[in-house]
Amino acid sequence: MEAQVLVEIVVPMATALLMLVVGTDVVVDKQLRALSARSVLLCTAAQLAVLPVVAMAVATVAPVGSMVAVGLAVVALVPSGSLSNAYTYLARGNVTLSIALTIVSTFAFTLLFPQVAALASMEPGFRQVVDGITTNTAMLKLVLVLSFPVAAGALIRHLFPERVSQYRRHLERVVSVTVVVTLALSVHAGWDYFVGKFGDILLATVLFTLGAIVVGYVTTRFLAPRDSSAVIIEVSTRNGAAIILVGQGLMANEAILGFACGFCLIQAALMLAYCHLIRRRMTGPGSRRVADAG
User: Under CATH, what is the fold of the domain 2-283?
Assistant: First the structure.
């Protein structure tokens, strides 16, 4: 019962609150100026078209269980997460571009979910998983929990900019507490699955994340360094809550919670290490110090 309440009520509500606050960070003119056709095209194409191939390759080559392979299929169908913005800041990347790309990714995966699912189903190993997803239901969940709160937050920022600035720190504290509590409850509910499948989840997450970083590097060779790091991080980071929303029904509630939490925690360690390396490269001896983004 605890896992069911988390999957059906707590996680969606906490995610919607988080995305609402992310939306209040959107200044439309500023984000539009940060976007370039090349960065949007590269980032979106890599996520929509190439990540399913990476996930399928990992599921095929790595000796992981069938349920972890199902989790990887779901990972390929969800947008990037707002954590990518924090990672980009730590890496001294272009945070404004990162926020804009997160918004584009959220709306692209939501509005194009049927097409993304159809593309993923072209991978033979993922066809059965994708066929088990009720596309309209998954799309509605993504709209209500991801896209709509972002749009609402941006509207609130546009209508009441001074109030948003005044209460910004309070909003961030509320969201931080909510996310930490939700994550703790989710880890607790999915703990047995996480521990039992830790080796498989670790292997799948490491291989997928490294593969996604390589895809990011290949597709951003001609971008400026700060823009390149923002796109690479955006391509690599997946939305844990969206994994739970889309994966519900494909795996037991405890299993999807354990997989999603395990994936996000392991990926967080990998991305923090990556950010440290990028930051040292961009600010170390012999290179021009890059000013803090944002």
Answer: Na+/H+ antiporter like fold (1.20.1530)
